[in-house]
Amino acid sequence: MITIKDVARAAGVSVSTVSHVLSGRRPISEPTRLRVLEAIERLGYRPNRLAQGLVSKSSRSLGLLVPDLANPFFGSMAEAMEIAAHDRGYSVILCNTNLDSRREADYLSMLLSRQVDGLLYFPGTRVPNRALLEAVAAGVPVVVVDERIDNLPGVFVDNFDGGRQLGRLLAQLGHRSLLFIGGPEGLPTVTDRLNGLRAGLAEGGGAPANLLLRFGEYRASHGYETIHICAREGVFAAVGEERPTAVVAANDMIALGALRALRELQLQVPRDCSLTGFDGVEFTAMITPSLTTVQQPSTRVATAAVELLLQRIEAGENHRDRAGQQQPHDDQAEVAPVIPHVVLPVTLVVRESVAPPPPQR
């Protein structure tokens, strides 16, 4: 195995000089730096990152926890975060919690044992995992994405405005009876999108005559099952304003499942029933009919989240630097810091899946 001593000998410099070239923390003359890099390349030397981390108290790695990798929204986010982190010299350890709290706790324990410098966290439930709160209490830098958690920094989109844009569009087309299929009831994204929908409907033409609400998981199976349950309950057989003329899905995966179920019920979209989603994942432009949805700026969200986390890490918030430090007494307590929240705008993308409602029966 090639060691740092071998590199120093081949380059004709000291071991400390090679170390400074690798870390970039001290100025080295350009000819010397190039000579060291040439020796590294020629010998095939690979630095021991674990040993470097023990010295620098930085592993140059980030933990990323997502709730459902089967959802392409999270896959695209994870890819964009990995790219942004790599550009800054960090690696990413990706963990799929699959909406399982015990699995999530296991992953959090594993990530901390690997000395990650910080965590990028997509909440999947209303109640934060106890293991996450323990990591925060231990001083681990955390940035939440997509769903808000009180007292934690995060990067989000304007879900309320996205719902409002959808509501205004549907109201202007003449829809007054709608079925809203949400994710988990009470989850911030679900609440904000629903409240925005109500506001947009009012802005576009007054309060809806009928707004049915169904909650569950942010998964295609939930959209599929909800449509069939509603059909068995006679929702789509109702007459007049009791019959929904539009289905508003809280995300694109729910919309995909709903579209399949509507087809099985011989209800054509948008002739018999309009359909909308939220997120703007790639497949929404490729299905038939193409899906009207709210486009999230995924790359901007991912990049902003990585940048916010690295700012907190590089500002000296590394939890290993503070290990064993005494907490201030009440009379020494500092003023509570401002919790940074980044909120990015969304864009309504109107496609084939919406149309004016059919004539009342």
TrEMBL record:
InterPro entries: Cro/C1-type_HTH, HTH_LacI, LacI/GalR-like_sensor, Lambda_DNA-bd_dom_sf, Peripla_BP_I
A GO term, aspect molecular function: DNA-binding transcription factor activity
Residues covered by the HTH lacI-type domain: 2-56
Lineage of origin: Bacteria, Bacillati, Chloroflexota, Ktedonobacteria, Thermogemmatisporales
Domain of life assignment: Bacteria
UniProt-listed CDD domains: HTH_LacI, PBP1_LacI_sugar_binding-like
Gene3D superfamilies registered for this protein in UniProt: 3.40.50.2300, lambda repressor-like DNA-binding domains
Protein name per the record: Uncharacterized protein
Keywords tagged on the record: DNA-binding, Repressor, Transcription, Transcription regulation
